[in-house]
Write a structure and sequence with these properties.
Order of helices and strands: EEHEHEEEHH
CATH architecture of the largest domain: 2-Layer Sandwich
Number of domains: 2
Shape: elongated
Strand content: 5-15%
Number of helices: 4
Helix content: 25-40%
Radius of gyration: 29 Å
CATH topology of the largest domain: Alpha-Beta Plaits
CATH class of the largest domain: Alpha Beta
Number of strands: 6
Largest sheet: 2 strands, antiparallel
């Protein structure tokens, strides 16, 4: 074909460009796919790096609150005889671990196997106590018989919760 003195090559065998063959559309679709994959990858990395701390069995019936005093984000919640860390609020600063006198706080990946279920307990109890308004933000006295309980056998069935 000739138009206004210029020759144009016309390929009669090529299909008209559709959404699937449009290069710009393919690039956008590829970017969307790569972005989705990147977000999925970053979420996996975050979940591996995000290690909330967990309050374990030694805290039952002791409730020393030295940990609460040093926590920069107030992620501790108080039950009648136990403290729990809300994992979504914890920023993994490690400030609470060295000040706990009964060594009840662990990063979730270093929690002894016998106490592994305390990860779920912390989340469950912290959420329940948060809804009831039991966020603990300052140091309190430990329970009256805390010293006795440091040497006693205890387990999660000893954890009390607030009457609702």
């Amino acid at each position: 074909m000739v138009s206004e003195g210029r020759a144009e090559n016309v390929n009669v065998t090529s299909k008209p460009r559709t959404a699937s063959t449009n290069p710009e559309r393919r690039v956008r679709r590829g970017l969307r796919y790569r972005t989705r994959n990147m977000l999925s990858y970053l979420n996996k990395i975050y979940s591996l790096l995000h290690m909330p701390y967990v309050v374990a069995e030694p805290c039952i019936n002791c409730k020393h609150t030295d940990c609460v005093e040093v926590c920069p984000v107030d992620c501790f919640y108080e039950g009648p005889n136990f403290l729990a860390i809300q994992p979504d609020e914890c920023i993994d600063c490690n400030a609470c671990v060295p000040v706990c006198p009964v060594e009840a706080i662990y990063p979730d990946d270093e929690l002894p196997d016998v106490w592994a279920h305390y990860t779920e307990w912390n989340e469950y109890l912290a959420n329940q106590w948060r809804e009831l308004g039991y966020n603990l933000t300052e140091k309190k006295d430990p329970m009256p018989d805390a010293e006795e309980w440091t040497e006693r056998d205890k387990n999660e069935t000893d954890i009390l919760t607030w009457d609702v």
